[in-house]
Batch of 2 targets.
Target 1
Amino acid sequence: MKYHLITLGCYMNISDSERVRTIIESQTGYEWTDNEAEANLVGILACSVRQKAINKVYSRITKWNKWKHKKSLVTFISGCILPNDMEKFLKLFDIVFRMSELEKLPEMLRHYGVVTPASLFSDLDSMPKNQSIDTFWKITPHYSSNFEAFVPIQNGCDKFCTFCAVPYTRGREVSRPSDEIVEEVKSLVGQGYKTITLLGQNVNSYGLDKKGEEIGFPDLLRRIGEMGNSIEKEFWVYFTSPHPRDMTDEVIEVISQYPCLAKQIHLPLQSGDDKVLITMNRKHSLEKYREIVHAVRRIIPEATLFTDIIVGFAGETDEQFENSRKAITEFNYNMAYIAQYSPRPGAAASRWDDDIPAEVKKARYHLITEDLRKESLACNQKMVGKTCRLLVVGHDRKEGYLSGLTEGKLIVRFASENEDLFGGFVDVKITSASDFSMEGELETYQVFKTCEVLGIKETLQV
Amino acid sequence: MQENTIKPVKNQVKVQQIRHLSESVYVLRFDRNGLSFEAGQHVILGLASKNNGREYSVYSGEQDDFFEVLIKEVQEGDISRKLRKVQPGDLLEMDGPLGFFTLDPDQVLTKKFVFIATGTGIAPFSSFVKSVPGLDYKILHGVRFGHEAIERENYDAARFHLCTSGDGSGDFHGRVTDYLTTNPADKNSEYYLCGNVKMIHQAFDILKEKGISSDQMHAEVYF
């Protein structure tokens, strides 16, 4: 009996899928297959946050339900799903459950065929509840990489940005116990993981839902930093995504104090215009954002800065868009994830006119991407001649080259075909810079991963 | 202001009373049942067992033993029309309290506040005034006609300025943005804006022009 799982959406869903795989493989006897056509159990972790992802769900379930005429097949769906979508899925899938109910999946599968209605098991309220999320977090994930891992620290969102549906799909913010987080990070480091990303919709509001009972985000980072200091292994800890409203100097100072806390800040701006920020319900001004960036530059001058920008948001004027362009230049971003606005069903802004024509959004996207290109190139050019430590992540598109990421998540390629380097650190001297990447020459490397996989304790350094 | 120790609450609430203030504006009062909130926050209110819900600011004060929201029935608004028909004893589904349109506890006793609202955007300011005795505030409330004023007797008359754009029956004939344009802006005050997005954007520009920084402006947009 084999199963296949399709994961749509963001890192949170990817992280959730690792726990789904653990439950299926450890408690149901199904074995993983890459080929969905040979599976007897097929599932999707959906993402209602984007309409395109929901369209993919309908396309898949239509196909799977046709397959049912020819073979025995059980279908399930979970993930980040709006209540209205959930109701529709109940009619299409055999099993529908919220991620917090994951532990019940084996029971649902056992009962399938005896008592089939999915709704028998699912308490599908109009707003997701998160009471069982603590149980979900205790499940040991089936990590999909052996050197990069994602650790959820929080679920849900209380911010209600008007462009976003996450508060309606994942419910209110709930923080995971810090002891569990630190334990999971420690265990990952012990297994040789090199990068660990703390995940949450608003990671830096961690603990605010449990004031007095749980530590806040700076203290969580501090605990992880202290743990890192006590272990003689090199690893980098990232977090995503923070909200500018909750970003404090203390967070930045803690990052600066511990070597294992990566010097990379992803600080979503969304728009460089105060009035658009108001309409987006971001609840911070551009000036507040500017102060945070100044603090980052002052406290961690070497830090790289990434952001998210939406162009063509409902009502965005040419002048307001120009302010986003100015922000790209002012804040010298290394990278920005730029999205052309599209209404997300369920989000407040989906009730407004999506009044910026597609061709205008596209033109704005290209203009601001060009601004970003210049900034990224200027940042990369400053790196030429310097030696950087990289985590090797795989083959580069250029034949005969491998690709790696610096601590600041900048992409560097270097000539090598040694796959033993995958998942290990190497030192590379940067020789040239281009728009969004750099090229370098290999200086030294340590084959941490290979040695540990082979059970050899020594580290090979060349 | 009470300390922010709010627990997110998602439950059913029982309607205690419905108070019609005009043809389209009404107040729903609920049993408080220990619900904790911070003045300025909102809830998502909908009919029980339906996948619907809309955001409404809390209208009552933190110390009141009941809980109220202020609602304007809009023709295209399915929820606001249905909520108008509820009866005492009916159960509604509520999520919250939510939001960050609140007063900074460090500023409450030291700062002056200017509250600028259109229509039911006055709800969070009503909650501020009821919750914080001695608050040094001024309210500009914009409506079309004088009879659309919302329980103005709840405010200190000297601090309340009704701006009517459709007739001269208010304290000021014109929109709140006209008031802001023609009157000086105190540079030491905190400005809270609540209502439709057009008013908020215009007020933002006017205040910026008058030297008020964006960090002194706090906005809650009603859609």
Target 2
Amino acid sequence: MEFFTFVGWLLDNPDAGFLPKFIGVAAAWAVGITVFVSVAALFFVWLERKVSAHIQCRLGPMEVGPHGVLQTLADGLKLLAKEDIIPEGADRFLFALAPILAFAGTFVSFAVLPFGPDLVIADLDLGIFFLAAVGSLEAIGVIAAGWASNNKWSLFGSVRAATQVVSYEIPMGIAFVTVAVVAGTLSLNGMVESQNGMFWNWLVFRNPFMPIVFISYYIASLAECKRAPFDLPEAESELVSGFHTEYSGMRFGIFFIAEYAAMYVVSALAVVMFLGGWYTGIAPVDAWVAKSALLANLVGAIVLITKSFALVFLQMWLRWTLPRIRLDQMMYLCLKVMVPIGMVCLIGAALWQGIAGVPADLMGDSQRPAFPVVGSISGLVCFLVATVGGWIWVRGAIRGTKSYQLANYKS
Amino acid sequence: MNIDFEIIVFYALAATGVVSGAMVLIARDVVRVAFWLLSSLSAVAGLYLHLGADFLGLTQVLVYIGGILVLILFGIMMTQRDPGLVKLERKSTRSMATGVGVSLVLFLVLASVINSVGWASRRPASATPTTQDLGTALLTDYVLPFELISVLLLVVLCGAAYLARRRVEQSHA
């Protein structure tokens, strides 16, 4: 049900039963999402340790359960049993509030994030705008943690986190706008529905700029999650553990769950925006599945979660492959590479949309122009020009930074 | 029940906003002030949502909480823990009088303006998403002011970049 009809229905129903019902529905969703997030986080922590181990030619946890699958459960129990330490000189109130803020900022994203055609708490008309707005709450939790710890390393970590998250919201926002232009809607469910049909209807293949936007979004999402190569806020070799250095026991555990939940959120969002959401990408299968609402939701949820988990795996793969970048490289990549490229893609996608395509909701499935011949050739030319031009530009810009840094070191 | 629920939500949000706003003035630790501001701004965003202005409410969160509040916190952390910031010194009576005078004038102007507008006394019966109408209005009836503001913001951005640029060459000379 659409959010406002839902609220309107609640407010227009004067019978005494609606408030308990409203609370009941909300509580059911909250419990369901909490269970999903916790189980996903447990699985991701185990997967991360296994992925890192195999990339480094090790076995990883093997003792607890077959192939160590129960290892994180044991770790979780250990975290629960650990002493809760609040350092002396810490701001006790903010110290306790910070993990809650960080977790809530991630958790509230699930309010609009769909799992299937009907498996969504609120299909907001403003879905993606909502995500952009609440995405910043997590940064505030991290800042609070670093400040309240009364520790230099924590403070450095949180200042880095704030810089990074605030900066990378810009390329991320540009990617959101581009997707909204191409999909013709801000609603996440609307975006998925505009990708119905074969997989070349997915937004990532809709025009030659969308693959670039997808990669740009994915890089920005790594930075938003503070994942390697953007893990400067918790760089172990420099800052002990960054903003959560002073946290122990379950308070640390909540930060940890929030981080892994955020990884799922950004990956699921990438799937919804670019990779066809709950659609398998094979039109006859989707059409057959859509005959029954139950089947559509069940298969849809499995497909969406599988795709998202694949992107989470990609995040882990990147983390254990790439070295950490420096602070100035991080800012350079954001402001001088990703923002201009994002702008060019936004203008290109808008022009493409005006010339080659109409917003998907304005036409039937039969009329959807998936790459008309002329369009594809001109698109290929655009793509080549953008790639070659971008390459020359980035090369030039990199030379620029080198001399800039030399000039800095001399002074 | 219908009206009760609505009014309870409204007053809860309004009270949160006002109390947090007062705490922004009262609290002594400057970081605590920023977090009271977070509570106050969130309550105002909640009021917007409650009154059916969904886009405005989320913009409040995006701009004020995600942008300005983070900027304030950032500013606090980049500066030192200055005792003068933590515990505001009592200033002279003249500056006190100036402050009170300015606040009074501002309050009177705002109060008269707020009183002169015929506000709708209740939230719309059926709240509908406002984004599409806003977008249409901005790109048809109000396209000239919209474009002017865009140019103004661009000028401001360029100005800020100009002021904040590094003067590497000059420092070497």
